[in-house]
Specification:
Chain lengths: 137, 137, 137, 137, 137, 137
């Protein structure tokens, strides 16, 4: 079993808040991340796929297929977008890094199986100091 | 003459557009950066100050004074903010990296002189691939 | 289960030696790290906490609580300090990266439980080339 | 159990192709990596060794022994070399990152055991975007 | 005057040698970089363009035009290529970083003028430790 | 004229203080950097040499000669050392980054001239946030 990791990047706006809460309550929970005028980040995304190495090709999976998949299913939806307003797989969720990482996992898990690999980890870096890793349920 | 460089970081939302233009025209000029629902970035800011080294202290300037100044005059205004809506020194400007860097220069130039140094360069990294440097007029 | 990672940094002096050994013997074991006049490093610390995502807030834990905890329990004690002379939780230990990482784990494990998370990993980078990871016993 | 990670770097040329295939077929599988005139990379290698910390020295293993071993068994063979033509432990393999990582594992596993540690992971970064991790069979 | 910097990357093989020299003489001059079986690098390229900021758009130049130009004139020729054998603008030159940077300057200088900017600097990083900067004659 | 930059690294202990001052006065000037028990850093050093490219070799200067020179004249003296106590070229100076950069310049300027290049810049990064550049008088 070998693990292959693909790094991708996207830039997006978001706001952390629960609509049923007052601004004060949201500020108490989320701090400056609850600014009603939005803020944003450059996100760095690391997708890890595990699989057996094909003894002929020396490859687990065609990495450009993985890259294409991430582009189609994730980047086209989130890059230069508003994570609260524009992303189907985040509808009804607070777009914390935790929820974004889980959402990306759910979008990719099946598709990567179809490519012949197994999704192992979604790592999402919201800044150089704050990082989420999700390995599925 | 010695140059001292201080790195700071902030995260903000913005949208590139000219209000007098149609969305189509703005898209033609700014591409996906003109998304009406905003997007955002982690910005990395490098402020270079030049000065003579004090032969007693071995310092050009007290770096924590520079850091405090950047915090008061810039970061408090831009971090976790919307660059189009909330930043006094960007009012009426398209918040391109070029204009943000020039705006930061204008906010800091005088204040750094008051600390006994000379502002030399504002370097603003909007992503790992796109960087602006401004050295004043 | 989701993992959240917080990066922090500190700068410290240390010397690797066993007091019962001669300088020659210490040099044989620790090389130039045993210099009796000390040397130092910029350490980069990654603290991983695991937990369930709260379905309401979308958060595992309040990251600023984790950050505050690391500051109180670790950074205040080690940053701009001498790891041999000034750090309570390293008394009587050779301040190798291994022992520093284990010491940090022991300081944080309970406290993070009190915040509602589980400490998963202490990663300590002493330089870009030398890194320790500790996951507890 | 503590994990120690040593980073090393090497630069090498390679070509991804199966000799029994036509250039067209190789291009279909490997894309531009099958260029018959070679291309190359700066590889970053992270070797993770796990072990118990010696309560006297505070060390798992002498890191300079690990570093010396990686130099002797790996870097001398691959740095500024052609991975297809010059590396004994890659003979008869397509030098994909997968196969290079597995080859490095096989070269080091026993030798690290002889030093008193256990090889845990070979991580090979072929570029900032493409990474392999191998943990043995 | 504002400076805009675009980062791009490419991976290539090369060999440093003068065809009129013996292998021994080439080794004396270029060390292991003269390996007749080639080696390679991930190159990081920073192209700096200077210009006035358009007061309407807030831009010096359309960065995607610069990026497209670098792709057409440079990356298509050098990425996943052999710098000795396959690059028209390096024919007859030893592909040292110095010569590659100068060659890239010569390819871009006029074209960037046509876009309305002025090429200011070509920075070429052959590894994290070895970097060339060229500002023209 | 082409510029070549060599990156090197060293780790050292230091303390910022003026011996004629009280600890309180030193703390007022240097903050926690005046801790009498020392602290330390991983320093990253970038040495820029400018020169003409030799039309035969394609090189400004033999980079391994520059690297060897930096090792002999700087790294052997500062790496894993105490900058206050053990470095001849810093005797009688407060080892601020400013003074360390100037000291390195003075050690290298003549020697690089002897190698056929011209020292252009000493850049010293004391941390990712604090950097000094010195270009000589």
């Amino acid at each position: 079993m070998v693990y292959i990791i693909r790094r991708e990047r996207f830039s997006a706006a978001h706001r952390l808040f629960m609509p049923e809460n007052s601004d004060e309550e949201n500020f108490r929970i989320y701090g400056k991340c609850s600014n009603p005028n939005w803020h944003g980040h450059n996100y760095t995304l690391f997708i890890t796929v595990k699989g057996e190495v094909d003894p002929n090709t020396g490859l687990i999976i065609h990495l450009r297929h993985v890259s294409q998949l991430i582009d189609d299913k994730i980047l086209k939806k989130v890059d230069h977008r508003n994570l609260n307003l524009e992303v189907d797989f985040l509808q009804g969720k607070v777009p914390t890094s935790e929820n974004v990482a889980i959402g990306i996992w759910n979008e990719l898990e099946f598709e990567i199986k179809n490519l012949g690999g197994t999704l192992h980890c979604v790592r999402l870096e919201q800044s150089e100091n704050n990082i989420i890793e999700y390995f599925g349920n």
